[in-house]
Design a protein that fits this description.
The complex is a heterodimer of chains A (1018) and B (130). By secondary structure, chain A is α+β, with helices and mostly antiparallel strands. Chain A is 48% helix and 22% strand. Chain B has a 5-stranded parallel β-sheet, with helices on both faces. The chains are: A alpha+beta (1018), B alpha/beta (130). Chains A and B meet through α22 and α25 of A and α1 of B.
């Protein structure tokens, strides 16, 4: 901000400016207008001077020329008289009489000095000069060529040894030359200067200075042709202008001098040229300074005069603001100031009156502030008290003079300090002007007051807070009530039940959150004053009670009656699937409390328990085991369906009766039952033998003790394990058989080598009895006999027949080994596709070589009828195992037919068929033997079932076959038979199977798959 | 057989009866025969005098018949090999198949007709005829 200007200095400045400005203008005008005039005046004066100097120079130079002309006349007249010798004396006389020349001489036509005239003091050197050749001097030659006087340029005189000029004039064939002393010209210039003509100078035609008032300068041969005025004059025009010479500035004019073509230059030093003007300027400046000083003094005095009353009024105002009202306004003769003084005096009186009113008002408000129960405080921006009323002092426990300057925050409860401080900061930042806040105050005595503050923020500007004025109400009592209410509400809300309270007029008072949540659809009926009936109506309108549907009015009446005269809890179902158990209770004041509990989950669990019970009963009933529960006395408590089936007794007949009575088979188990109950460990009878129906069956019995907490007792489980035991036996037998097969395979391999030795040697032997073989003939010859003789001998001794016998026997042995091997071939290999008919053919071949079949049943006698369907696809199978099946069936049939056919006329016959049967490949092996009855048929595949006398068969062949077909190949083995009608074994194997069935079945049934022996391939 | 070069055959088998009788049989059919009771002996015989064909038993003491075939094949690739084994269902190993030994070159013991060896040798050796 610019500093305010003082009235006095401001006025003074303005006055001074007005006085000085015209003077400055006049001065500037003078300088600009008259300076050029003065300059041109000086120039014209110079020009005149130069002109005059030139003219005077011309006149001055006419003197030497005239002298030479006179001499020429004298010389010519002397020559005409023939007195040429007088020339010397003429010349010497002329020198002596005139100071202009320092030497005069005659130069003959060839340029040599013929005669010379010298001043008297140098005449003894005359002979030195005679005969000097001056032809090199240009002006001499020039002079000889024409008829008028010629001035030379400056040169160093031979005669005087100084810078000279020469003036030459032709005399007949010769030239008369005078060496002119430059000093003379300088003297001339000095003379001109002395006449007050400025600085005169003469410059020759080359621009060289030849005359100057100072002879020394003249002799320096200075060239001044660079001066513009000089150059113009050399060109024949008068010139003028400024130039510098010898370090000074000149105003000059130059004029050409006729005759020698020289130039006269006259310069006036610039300093002296402007001398007059400078003087005038000094006078003007002095006048200006005087005028300025006068103006300043006038201005200062005038300004002080005007500013005085203002300063006095300012002083009065200061007094007034300090509260002094006895004042004299300044006196002045100026009317405006007198008016001002009067107004000022009136104003002082008005202020005095108003101040008294304010004081009265303040007293009134102070009484109000101090008298109120509310707390009124003011704090500054730093939070220190600047005012605290009596109510506040009481709360804080402060004496009246203690509070000022204390920090207001010290009286805020420590837990509330931080948020209070933050609130203040927030108001400050947001620029709010008022706000409310609740906090706790702690008095000096430690008592806590809850306060509700209204705070006014006093601002000095948008970002500036001067302090806070606050009014507070003590709401401690209200807080305590609120807190108690809140605890009550929280307690009610915390109830897991839905809670509602209705007053004696059945109007809503309060409810908890759970109740509100339950009745969210009718939330507007949960307002104080709404009647319970309206609430129920709204509930019905929303269709929240499915039981009331269609009989809303009746339900409403019942429900209201229950509400008014509570008679115990009742259940209520809701539209949203909830089941509520509602308790209502009248309070002494006639109001009613409603409590409802969610029993949905309870109902669901009850339902689940019933379902579970049902399921459990089902499970127990559907168990394939006999399950019987008994109590500690051995009386039946549980009887499942399998027990009914097994015993033929219904549940009603069995329950409550002793175990031994209803299940006599378990009569021997009563000790175990007691043991299980007393030791609380399960008891087990792994193999109980059951007899009946002429069939022996086995059972496994397990007795589990029951937990004694509810009822002591046991559960008896009985499983029929007959089948399992039989299967286990089959497995054991199969394993035995197959391990015998493995042994046979290992032996067969060992047999092959010696067999090969036998067969090969016999073949060699046969070859070597061949009479056609050349080698044989040669060997016979060497032995002294002939092959014919040997052949005859061999024939006689039946050697070939015996060799063939060995060969035949060996080959048969080889085939037997081969077949044994094909049985035992490692069958862990995957099922592979094979042609069933071919497999059947190989089995037939095998059967023909079977010792038992061949010897005992004369298998070769049996007729074989083949009925093979053409184009049968190959079947996935394990050929060795399938061959075993075929062989077993063939052997079984052969045995049956052998014991039957001889007594009949018919030939034993197998009819073999291979054909498609839907998704199966069907192989039929039918015999025309005695057939069998139903009981026989049913037990046919049972292990160890045999109709043969002991030692004839193992009774395992067909059961092993059954397992191979069903288990390993996933097929079916069946037999169709009637007594007297033969038997037909039907093997069905699956066609087009993506997976080997045997594998799936084998893995799925675990141990039921028959293990096979490992055979060594080498 | 006249006009044909006499073919040399080495029979390798640890069973003397098998080995000798086969060699004798083939000698009668015009082959120049030698025998060896082990793979190591076979290699010793083969070194100075490579045979046109070798008949090998698989189960030999020490080095196996398959290893022997592989070794001799490396020594002289144009040698013909026949396998004579008592192991039922034997199939040439992958290694032997890569050097061109197929199932038709496998003969099971006991061989009922030894002339089968002669036929097989002729077929193999004629293929190797330059």
């Amino acid at each position: 901000m610019r500093r305010p200007r003082q009235l006095q200095s401001s006025l003074a400045r303005q006055f001074a400016l007005v006085a000085i400005a015209p003077l400055l203008a006049v001065g500037a005008l003078l300088l600009l207008r008259f300076l050029p005039l003065v300059e041109s005046e000086i120039e014209s004066r110079n020009r005149t001077l130069a002109n005059a100097a030139g003219t005077q120079a011309e006149l001055f130079l006419q003197g030497p020329e005239l002298l030479l002309h006179n001499l020429r006349g004298a010389l010519q007249s002397a020559r005409d008289r023939g007195a040429d010798t007088e020339a010397r004396s003429i010349l010497e006389t002329a020198i002596d009489s005139s100071p202009l020349f320092e030497a005069l001489y005659l130069v003959s036509g060839d340029g040599s000095v013929r005669e010379v005239g010298l001043p008297a003091e140098r005449r003894e050197r005359r002979r030195d000069f005679l005969g000097l050749d001056l032809s090199s001097r240009a002006f001499v030659a020039e002079t000889l060529a024409r008829d008028h006087a010629t001035w030379s340029d400056t040169f160093l005189s031979l005669f005087s040894g100084e810078i000279s000029l020469a003036l030459a004039l032709p005399v007949g064939e010769e030239a008369l030359v005078g060496d002119f002393r430059i000093e003379r010209l300088s003297e001339f210039a000095r003379r001109l200067q002395a006449e007050g003509q400025g600085l005169p100078m003469i410059i020759d035609r080359k621009g060289q200075l030849i005359a100057h008032p100072s002879a020394a300068l003249s002799a320096q041969q200075l060239n001044l042709s660079h001066i513009t005025a000089v150059r113009e004059a050399l060109d024949g025009r008068p010139g003028a202008g400024r130039f510098a010479f010898e370090g000074r500035d000149y105003l000059g004019a130059a004029m050409p001098i006729e005759g020698p073509h020289w130039v006269a230059l006259v310069g006036v030093e610039v300093g002296s040229a402007y001398h007059d003007i400078r003087e005038a300027a000094w006078i003007l400046l002095a006048g200006l300074l005087g005028a300025t000083a006068l103006a300043l003094v006038t201005a200062l005095l005038g300004a002080r005069h005007f500013a005085r009353p203002f300063r006095e009024f300012a002083a009065l105002a200061r007094e007034l603001s300090a509260g002094r009202y006895e004042l004299n306004p300044p006196r002045s003769r100026i009317k405006e100031i007198q008016d001002l003084s009067r107004v000022f005096a009136g104003m002082v009186n008005a202020i005095e009156e108003r101040e008294e009113q304010i004081a009265a008002s303040e007293r009134k408000y102070r009484e109000l502030v101090e008298g109120t129960e509310n707390l009124i405080t003011r704090v500054d921006a730093q939070g220190r008290f600047t005012f605290v009323n009596s109510a506040a002092r009481r709360v804080f426990g402060l004496a009246p003079d203690e509070c000022l300057g204390l920090s207001a925050f010290d009286f805020i409860h420590p837990e509330d300090r931080e948020f209070t401080r933050r609130s203040f900061e927030r108001w400050r930042e947001r620029g709010e002007s008022s706000a409310t806040i609740e906090n706790r105050q702690v008095s000096r005595t430690g008592r806590i007051h809850h306060m509700l503050w209204t705070v006014h923020i006093e601002r000095g500007g948008p970002d500036e807070v001067n302090g806070f004025s606050s009014i507070a109400r003590d709401i401690t009592e209200r807080r305590l009530v609120e807190a108690a209410n809140a605890r009550l509400a929280a307690a009610v809300d915390a109830l897991s039940e839905r809670f509602a309270l209705y007053d004696a007029d059945d109007r809503f008072v309060l409810c908890n959150a759970k109740f509100r949540e339950l009745n969210a659809a009718v939330a507007d009926t949960l307002r104080p004053g709404v009647s319970f009936k309206d609430h129920l109506r709204a509930v019905l309108d929303q269709g929240l009670v499915p039981d009331a549907r269609g009989r809303e009015e009746a339900w409403l009446v019942e429900r209201l009656a229950r509400h008014r005269y509570p008679s115990g809890p009742f259940e209520l179902s809701r539209q949203d699937g909830l089941y509520l158990l509602v308790y209502e209770q009248r309070l002494p004041d006639g109001s009613t409390v409603t409590l409802s509990t969610d029993v949905t989950e309870l109902r669901r669990q009850t339902g689940e328990i019933n379902q579970l019970r049902h399921l459990l009963a089902n499970i127990i009933d559907s168990m394939p085991s006999v399950l019987v529960g008994v109590d500690a006395e051995g009386l039946v408590t549980q009887w499942n369906r399998e027990a009914e089936r097994f015993s033929g007794l219904g549940t009603e007949q069995a329950l409550g009766r002793p175990l031994a009575t209803v299940l006599p088979q378990l009569g021997g188990e009563s000790e175990r039952v007691q043991a299980a109950i007393s030791t609380r460990t399960p008891q087990r009878d792994p193999k109980l033998t059951l007899t009946g129906d002429g069939e022996i069956r086995y059972a496994e019995v397990t007795i589990y003790p029951l937990d004694g907490e509810h009822a002591e007792g046991a559960v008896i489980r009985m499983d029929d394990i007959t089948e399992r035991l039989r299967l286990e036996e089959v497995m054991i037998q199969s394993e035995k058989m197959l391990s015998v097969g493995g042994l046979a395979a290992g032996m067969a391999h060992e047999i092959n080598n010696p067999l090969a030795g036998i067969l090969q040697s016999v073949q060699v032997l046969r070859n070597r009895l061949d009479p056609d073989l050349a080698k044989n003939a040669a060997a016979a010859r060497d032995a002294g006999t002939s092959m014919e003789a040997i052949a005859a001998y061999a024939e006689k001794r039946e050697l070939p027949r015996m060799i063939e016998g060995v060969l035949s026997s060996g080959q048969r042995a080889a085939r037997i080994v081969e077949n044994m091997l094909s049985f035992a071939r490692k069958s862990t290999a995957r099922l592979e596709e094979h042609d069933l008919a071919a497999l059947l053919e190989r089995t037939l071949e095998l059967a023909e070589n079977d010792y038992d079949l061949k010897k005992k049943h004369d298998f070769r006698r049996i007729e074989i009828v083949r009925d093979f369907e053409a184009g049968m696809p190959p079947v996935r199978c394990e050929p060795a195992m399938l061959q075993q099946v075929f062989l077993n069936i063939l052997r079984n049939g052969a045995e049956a037919m052998a014991g039957y056919c001889p007594h009949h006329a018919r030939t034993p016959c197998f009819t073999l068929a291979v054909r498609r049967d839907g998704d199966w490949a069907r192989v039929e092996i039918r015999d025309n033997g005695p057939g069998m009855d139903e009981a026989e048929r049913r037990r046919l595949f049972e292990p160890f079932y045999t109709t043969k006398e002991v030692g004839v068969g193992t009774g395992l062949g067909l059961s092993v076959s059954y397992f191979i077909v069903c288990e390993t190949h996933g097929g079916l083995l069946d037999v169709i038979a009637e007594p007297g009608a033969g038997a037909c074994f039907v093997i069905r194997l699956p066609l087009r199977q993506s997976q080997p069935a045997g594998r799936v079945r084998g893995e799925g049934t675990g141990g039921s798959r028959a293990p096979r022996p490992e055979t060594n391939p080498t | 057989m006249s006009g044909e070069r006499t073919r040399s055959v080495l029979v390798v088998d640890d069973e003397a009866a098998v080995c000798d009788s086969l060699a004798e049989f083939l000698a009668d059919f015009g082959y120049e025969c030698a025998t060896a009771a082990s793979a190591e002996e076979a290699i010793t015989r083969f070194e100075p005098h490579p045979f046109d064909a070798v008949i090998v038993d698989l189960r030999l003491p020490g080095m196996s018949g398959e290893a022997l075939i592989a070794a001799l094949h490396r020594r002289r690739p144009e040698t013909a090999f026949l396998i004579h084994t008592g192991a039922p269902g034997y199939q040439p190993s992958a290694e032997l198949q890569t050097i061109g030994i197929g199932a038709d070159q496998v003969f099971m013991k006991p061989q009922r007709d030894l002339q089968a060896f002669d036929r097989a040798l002729r077929a193999l050796l004629s293929k190797r005829e330059p």
